[in-house]
Amino acid sequence: MKDLLKAIWKILKYADNFFTFIRHSILNVVLLICVIAVAAALLTREDKETAVSKIPANSVLQLNITGDIVEQEISSDTLSALLSDFSDSDDANTCLQDILDAIHQAKNDKRIKAIFLDSSKMDGASLNQLTVIGEALKDFRSSGKKVLAGADSYTQGRYYLASWADTIMLNPMGSVDIFGLGRYSLYFKDAIDKLKMKYYIFKVGTYKSAIEPLLRNDMSTADKEQSMQWLDSLWGNYSRHVVANRRLKPDDLQLYTENMQVNLEKLNGDSAEVARGAGLVDMLATRPQILNEITKVAGKDMELISLHQYLKEGGVPHSFDGLEGNIGIIIAEGTIIDGKAPTGQIGGDTLAQMLKDARLDDNIKAVVLRVNSGGGSAFASEVIREELLELKKSGKKIVVSMGSMAASGGYWISASADKIIASPTTITGSIGVFGVLPNFSDSLNAIGVHSDGVGTTPLAAGVNVVQPLSENMQSMIQLSVENTYNRFLNIVASGRNIPVSRVAQIAEGRVYAGREAKQLGLVDELGDMQRAITVAGTLAKVQPKPILIRPKQSMKEKLMQFLSSARANVTTFMFGNQLGRVVSELEKQHSVAVDSALGQFNDPKGIYSWDPGIRPIR
Fold this sequence. Notes:
By secondary structure, the protein is of the alpha/beta class.
């Protein structure tokens, strides 16, 4: 065991040295690139001011979605744009509203003859995000213009989006990989036991499964039961849309998935022909043939205009932008943590300040809070909710629009809204709380390191990771967790006007899809962001003019965000597109591990209402 721990320590030490080297190298290059960026900006400023950007008359909007689809855009900067040009990198995430704005503008833009749906570099997206984009494509087609989709292969997320196209083309050597939805996790009990580690677990909720990987080697029966229910709901939604869009028989998609091996044997392993035979694609086409089909629709002088170019040069109005508005839009995306947080996380203080800004702005009559979160710190969630209640006391209305997930703490901050609107595939509920405290006393004892001492009271040792937790302290923490859970139940009961006894029946940490949540009274209606804005306008008795409320950032915070963005771009610039992606991902995982241990989960009392959620569909 001693040798094993030494080996693990050496590996961790070398890994830390490796990432330290990468950081130092990247920061040095950042300084150099910053100088280049400033010089380039100054040299090109005059050209940009005088240039007149034009979209050709016979253009096709290439809806090339890259990276993950996110709810909140991270502001771009000169350095990012410059490095993107140098490295030909297009791995940045794509903002959902940008996609919708471009499609809406293209519908009535006489220069745009069609849309070519290119999802080949799209990574993660939720079903409800893809559905909203699909419905926008359907509206675009109502103008008489065509939507064409073409790809070398389709994952099930990319195919789901492509199903809204008039024509779906697939490379003859490609495939349509639809395997169904699942939820699989890693479990660490045996590894924890072998390392003689210990976790003190405090929780309330039979179905609160976030901490199961620390306690088990497999998924519990309760977690399997609840997971299958919401997975079935999401899969049913996926299947219904694909079947309707492609005009298939009700069982065709299920049979395609279940009989894949048999069908491949019949066609000598030709997966493309299997997809065409099942009616999932209209034609098999190579890349030149796909381009030829697009040309047939738009004409020989057709030009493909990328999403980025169209947003930049096509005169696309950006939703929620402007100097005035009466419906404040606040985006709450990511893990909820105590204090302030940058874009991609929900800082309790940061979000509370935005709600306060909306309350003090006389022009804002109502707020739409877009929640896309699996929760996090219970304390930070309550800080946000308290400011939300102050907003309501001022007479202003608040409507919650749930994204792909608004569970645990995400539901905590939603429950007191005037109205809650979710999509059928939103994952919500998970009303439960837990606390986790790691302890390394047995691990240290095994290598001959011991902790001992004296204190003035039995509680003097407090929460010490190198000493066993006293029974009194364990009891105190469990009582605190139970108190937080009861508080959660009462928040939901009061906010949703449901008896506490009824909330207790549907809580227990259980997760629900949006459709089931509506039936249970946890949400008011099913709809998208636009529906939430309409409802907010109705409640406030105004014609809605939405405006995005952004967090106020100090110069230091802006600088740190700039450097963070720059480091990611420089990594790709230094190491190349593919290798850079690998290095960035390794560094990301390394940072996540450190953050988790040192402060990402930073609730003052160590109590969380959090659900790890589901992987984005790909």
